[in-house]
Amino acid sequence: MMSQDDHYAFLTLDDLVQRSLSVELAAEFLVCSQADVRRRLKRNRLLAFEFGPDERWYFPAWQFEPRYPTGTLPGLADLLDLSTLDTLELSRWVWRPNPVLNGRRPIEALREGQIEIVLKLINAMEEDI
After folding, report:
1. Domain ranges (residues) in the chain
2. 3-class SS letters over the chain
3. Separation CA 68–CA 10 (nearest Å)
4. Tens-digit pLDDT string for the chain (129 aa)
């Protein structure tokens, strides 16, 4: 049987919309203004995508972590700087078990502070594309 975490590795865009925050909710979570959320997005410090007829912004929930001062996963900004994957592809990638991580997912490694290995993985993958 597939766990909830396993499902993330096979996300569709509709799934990702359901697992995302609006600008308003992202601002509430990060305890900042909506303008600040948009600035962070523009500076590539948050991951988001536009979707639907009104082209609303959606911020995948997996990137948010209340335990850290930024309110996001450690290493997220560096990951976003290195990756050319679109939001859906990157969301799948962080949830997909990786053999270099002994079957763990990149998101788990980031949560554990193993930022460098995740950045090396995304960099190596980007070089292969």
Report:
1. 4-128
2. CCCHHHHHCCCCHHHHHHCEECHHHHHHHHCCCHHHHHHHHHCCCCCCEEECCCCEEEEEHHHECCCCCCCECCCHHHHHHHCCCCHHHHHHHHHCCCHHHCCCCHHHHHHCCCHHHHHHHHHHHHHHC
3. 27
4. 445 555 566 789 899 999 999 999 999 999 999 999 999 999 999 999 999 898 999 999 999 999 999 999 999 999 999 999 999 999 999 999 999 999 999 999 999 999 999 999 999 987 775
User: Which token pair is 58?
Assistant: 């959606």
